[in-house]
Design a protein that fits this description.
CATH topology of the largest domain: Rossmann fold
Structural class: alpha/beta
CATH class of the largest domain: Alpha Beta
Number of helices: 13
Radius of gyration: 23 Å
Order of helices and strands: EEHEHHEHEEHEEHEHEEEHHEHEHHEH
CATH architecture of the largest domain: 3-Layer(aba) Sandwich
Length: about 425
């Protein structure tokens, strides 16, 4: 699948400290020339909302930072272009499901480009990876790790329950709420994840030696990540398949747990060294969700004439791992703060504290503290716009250096 256009990062003359993230589980590896990351992509049944944008912005920051650390970043993202929500909306709107998916994928890539999100090296759809998925299921089945139930194929999860990230009772509840079927009769264990759904009338299907149908959710990501990131003869010395698995906090369980287990079953080693998750975005005090009808879409904000850099700035003004609320006032405040930065950067010379960019990089290196970075930029802009005379710890600098830093590390092209 074609990604959106590549963005060249400007040269920044700063020594970057090692990036330290508070991972949901695992630990981010140290300096590495070969850095592999997988981020779960969209199910294209609707446009990109701010929850999506906040997630992809977070991993864009990590991607950018690692590149400035001189790592070769191999970043892969998937698109779940065949799944229940997509098929349900296609039926509701009397629309071909493939056309709906393609329309929403195009809108998603336009939104990502507007927000200056670096494109993944590989953007892979589930339908493109179908043969790989079937091959993985066959491997699991022939190894005795999967079984057939009324044409559907399930993975045997029982040997992996010791690594559950929560209590079994809670896991069963969440599993049922997020696409699982813990109460289905005949399953070996209630948490067994679906690998292959036997063909249902009116749904798309792919022929398969174990029965026609379509894949389950969790295995798709395992297979796409392994095919694009865990390949080549260099893998023999690796203790994990990839360095980083990322996504929203709603994916911690069951999706990331299940996809990690399935990847380990296919390779014999742990899937990711570190798992990093972003908080949820609400609206005016309420959870933002499709069922509530209160999703805020990036494309709509852009159509209203809101500067994409203002949207990006507003999302940077909260810590990535915390749940946050979106309000109309947030846009207004961000417009004002972006305007002040642009005014300051338009000058021929500006005053800045000594080692200003190094200090900003250090703030960013500590769990992507963008809030602290933006506060420091606010204070810097105020000193210059108010023509203050600071102490001798300040120096005259070229605003172009600061502009390149903001573009390269924060993705703010001002």
């Amino acid at each position: 699948m074609k990604t959106w256009p590549r963005i060249d990062l400007p040269k920044v003359s700063v020594t970057f400290p090692r990036l330290k993230l508070k991972c949901t589980s695992g630990e981010l590896p140290g300096a590495s020339k070969d850095w592999r990351a997988y981020v779960c992509g969209i199910t294209p049944y609707d446009a990109t909302h701010l929850g999506h944008a906040a997630t992809y912005l977070t991993f864009d920051l990590i991607n950018r930072y690692q590149r400035y650390m001189d790592s070769t970043v191999n970043f892969v993202e998937n698109v779940t272009d065949v799944d229940d929500p997509l098929l349900e909306r296609a039926i509701r709107d009397s629309q071909n499901w493939e056309n709906l998916a393609n329309d929403q994928i195009s809108l998603f890539t336009e939104d990502m480009q507007a927000l200056r999100i670096l494109p993944p090296k590989n953007l892979v759809s589930v339908t493109e990876a179908m043969e790989l998925i079937k091959s993985a299921i066959s491997k699991l089945h022939s190894s005795g790790l999967a079984y057939v139930l009324d044409g559907d194929i399930y993975f045997k999860i029982e040997d992996h329950l010791g690594s559950l990230p929560l209590q079994l009772e809670e896991a069963l509840r969440i599993f049922g709420e997020r696409g699982g079927d813990p109460s289905r009769e005949g399953k070996r264990h209630p948490l067994d994840p679906l690998l292959w759904l036997a063909h249902r009338p009116g749904e798309p299907k792919w022929e398969f030696e174990l029965g026609a149908g379509r894949p389950g959710w969790h295995l798709e990501c395992s297979v796409i990540a392994l095919e694009n990131l865990f390949v080549g003869k260099d893998n023999s010395a690796r203790t994990t398949c990839i360095e980083l698995q990322g996504g929203g906090s709603d994916l911690i369980f069951p999706h990331h747990f299940m996809s990690g287990v399935l990847a380990k079953a296919l390779t014999g080693i742990e899937f990711a060294a570190a798992y990093v998750h972003t908080g949820m975005v609400g609206l005016d005090g309420e959870k933002m969700s499709k069922s509530k009808g209160n999703l805020v879409f990036v494309s709509k904000l852009l159509q209203e004439g809101i500067d994409p850099m203002v949207i990006r700035y507003a999302l940077l003004n909260s810590h990535y791992s915390e749940d946050r609320m979106w309000t109309a006032s947030l846009i207004n405040q961000s417009e004002e703060r972006v305007s002040r930065l642009r005014q300051t950067l338009s000058r021929n010379e500006v005053l800045a504290p000594q080692n200003f960019l190094h200090d900003l990089a250090s703030m960013l290196s500590v769990d992507l503290d963008t809030v602290k970075v933006l506060e420091s930029l606010d204070a810097w802009a105020s000193i210059n716009l108010q023509n203050q005379t600071p102490d001798n710890q300040f120096e005259v600098v070229n605003p172009g250096e600061i502009s390149r830093f903001l573009d390269g590390l924060l993705g703010l092209a001002l």
